[in-house]
Specification:
Elements (H helix, E strand, L loop, with lengths): L1 H11 L4 H9 L4 E3 L6 E6 L5 H4 L3 E7 L2 H27 L7 H6 L6 E3 L4 H25 L6 H19 L3 H6 L1 H10 L2 E3 L7 H26 L28 H10 L6 H18 L9 H11 L6 H8 L3 H6 L8 H23 L30 H8 L2 H8 L4 H13 L3 H5 L7 E4 L2 E6 L21 E4 L2 H5 L2 H11 L17 H13 L17 H13 L5 H4 L8 H6 L2 H4 L2 H9 L20
Parallel strand pairs: 4-5
Antiparallel strand pairs: 1-2, 2-3, 6-7, 7-8
Helix pairs in contact: 1-2, 4-6, 4-7, 6-10, 7-10, 11-12, 12-16, 18-19, 19-24
Length: about 625
């Protein structure tokens, strides 16, 4: 690219051609001195290390010779990279040993002098450098207000790694450039080189080993940012003074072990919620890294939540396809990122549940008790996006009266599809709650009222393939709407009972305990086939699947001046939540009272009477 630009400059430049080419081919941070005395190097110092470096800008004269100035500018770019990295490592890295603050600030008289550099000392220094660099990088991420820009970070790693490679290959200037970082690392861990070693061949060897260790650490960082396996091993002892070694303690619970224990003890009936935990918490572990739970901080939570906000929808599919890390995906520009409802309802909710469990179970072994997921959503997607809406009367008519439905209602083998839609329409229940109904246990008649029981109780003759659940955790008994009774739902249920069926729709096999997974997909596909799926109202809310029937029941109920939340399973709250907790809903709203409310629900459509069994309960 540079070569093409230079060629273009040579072709177009006339008398001032040399000057034009100078401007085009100048290295980064090099510019003409405004006083007309040659070239200069100018580079701003990042805000997070200005205090450590002691200036806001690197500024040096480079002389008037363009070629010499360019070479010197490149050398200064590498050198200032190293100084910035050293300052960040000094500010943010966490020493491996305990008592780090005392060691870092300890006067030289308290440091242990190193008189001999053997292979054991070099090995410990190597491990210490790798741990220090990784710790420093993590703390830099956690202290930031925004997620790390991965491409820029990879460029920075490459620049410093080249400087380390030069030192490892024996370049004198590069070797000496690592002296300050080596001294700082040794001092932080309680050591200093004896006076006799300073300036010696042994010190030069140690500097080369230090640069080599730093390069290995950068290789590891690069792999972590790219989502690849780490090329470096972290086993081995680090530098530490015998006098400062902590007393032996029991193993501290690590974050990975805490997450595994949490996932292993989830209630099996909460399948959909458990899937969220199984997706979110491993992602949290990848982004913040494994660590003792005693080191978990609010900055880790913030870092994770700021990062996932920048991910695109269905990012896990992209990750599998492109083999990229979460951070690398989040650093890319996407036309669309996670919606507010997904961010709050999936990521924040799952992490909040894990933190709550951690405080309850592990605070005695150091789990922090003040963590919060109250990290603001910075995206532009609103909470109502992809929200479903209620069906209009003409849409209900088109669902139950078309050529495809005519075949369904006439076929005993397909009629269960009609019953799924009809029950969704007149109960507003969640598709899983409907499909897990046990014909042997979850329906009946009392005082002339036919009823359905939405419950997570197993009951008699339960289906071993179904894990029953109620999202609110509160079972409810609801009356059948008169329209369901008119078209023969009791007769359909009785026929299933006689056949020994243990779930409402035996033709659809459960998916990992969820009896509503396959039926829910069928409903969405059926709505597509008749042209209703995706049709939006003025607010952008559309018909998308089974959940639209919940909106339909509640909306038409309110349109008829009746509250049907007791039917759909939504908790009816007053302005006093404390009092709500004391009230017995079974006394406040009896089955007969629900019948009165349900009578007011009128869609203005009479459903077709499907093919049904012969018997005393058939219409």
């Amino acid at each position: 690219m540079v070569q093409k630009r230079v060629q273009k400059a040579v072709q177009t430049a006339k008398k001032e051609g040399n000057a034009a080419m100078d401007e085009i081919t100048m290295p980064q941070f090099m510019s003409k001195n405004p006083r007309g005395t040659g070239y200069q190097f100018r580079r701003g110092v990042p805000a997070d290390v200005r205090t450590s470096i002691g200036k806001r800008e690197f500024k040096l004269a480079l002389g008037g010779n363009f070629q010499v100035a360019s070479q010197r500018c490149r050398e200064l770019a590498v050198e200032t990279d190293r100084q910035i990295a050293a300052a960040r490592a000094s500010n943010t890295s966490q020493p491996v040993v305990t008592g780090e603050a005392r060691q870092a600030s300890a006067p030289n008289v308290l440091l242990t002098e190193v008189h001999e550099i053997d292979s054991d000392f070099i090995a410990k220094l190597h491990t210490t450098v790798i741990e220090q660099v990784r710790h420093g990088d993590k703390n830099q991420r956690y202290r930031g207000r925004e997620a790390i820009n991965v491409p820029e970070k990879l460029q920075e790693i490459e620049r410093i790694r080249n400087w380390a490679a030069m030192a490892r290959n024996g370049d004198k200037i590069a070797v000496e450039g690592w002296s300050g970082m080596l001294t700082s690392t040794l001092k932080r861990n309680g050591y200093q080189l004896a006076q006799a070693l300073r300036g010696s061949q042994e010190e030069r060897m140690l500097l080369i080993e230090y640069a080599s260790a730093y390069r290995d650490a950068l290789d590891t960082l690069e792999s972590e940012y790219l989502g690849k396996n780490s090329p470096a091993a972290f086993s081995g002892m680090t530098l530490k003074r015998p006098a400062l070694e902590p007393a032996p303690t029991q193993d501290v619970l690590r974050l990975s072990a805490a997450i595994n224990e949490f996932l292993a003890n989830l209630p099996p009936e909460k399948r959909s919620v458990n899937e969220k935990h199984g997706f979110v918490l491993p992602a949290f572990l990848e982004v913040v890294g494994d660590m003792p739970i005693t080191e978990l901080r609010q900055s880790h939570v913030k870092d994770f939540l700021l990062t996932v906000q920048k991910l695109p929808p269905r990012w896990s599919e992209l990750r599998k396809r492109d083999n990229k890390s979460i951070r690398l995906l989040a650093s890319q520009e996407w036309p669309e990122t996670l919606a507010l409802s997904t961010y709050e309802g999936t990521y924040c909710s799952s992490l909040r549940t894990f933190i709550k469990r951690g405080v309850a179970d592990w605070q005695d072994v150091g789990f922090p008790t003040a963590l919060t997921t109250n990290i603001s959503y910075l995206g532009s997607r609103t909470k109502v996006e992809r929200k479903q809406r209620a069906l209009r009367t003409h849409e209900i008519q088109s669902i139950f009266f078309n050529s495809r439905m005519e075949k369904i209602v006439r076929s005993p083998e397909k009629v269960h599809k009609f019953w799924l839609l009809a029950i969704e329409l007149y109960t507003g229940a969640r598709v899983r709650e409907i499909c897990q109904l046990n014909p042997q246990y979850d329906w009946g008649e009392k005082n002339g009222i036919w009823w359905l029981r939405i419950t997570d109780e197993v009951g008699a003759k339960s289906d071993p393939d179904v894990i029953k659940s109620v999202k609110t955790g509160k079972p409810r008994t609801i009356p059948m709407h008169a329209e369901l009774v008119r078209i023969g739902l009791p007769g359909y249920l009785e026929s299933l009972r006689k056949k020994g069926a243990r779930r409402l729709f035996p033709s659809w096999a459960p998916t990992q305990g969820d009896a509503g997974a396959a039926p829910g997909k069928w409903v969405a596909n059926y709505l597509r086939s008749i042209g209703i799926h995706g049709v939006a109202n003025e607010l952008g809310n559309a018909v998308r699947g089974s959940h639209t029937f919940r909106h339909t029941l509640l909306t038409h109920g309110r349109k008829n001046s009746v509250n049907l939340r007791c039917i759909s399973g939504h908790h009816e709250k007053s302005d006093n939540e404390v009092a709500d907790g004391y009230e017995d809903e079974t006394m406040l709203l009896k089955l007969a009272d629900m019948v009165v409310r349900l009578k007011e629900l009128n869609y203005g459509v009479m459903l077709p009477v499907p093919a049904g069994p012969a018997g005393s309960l058939a219409k």
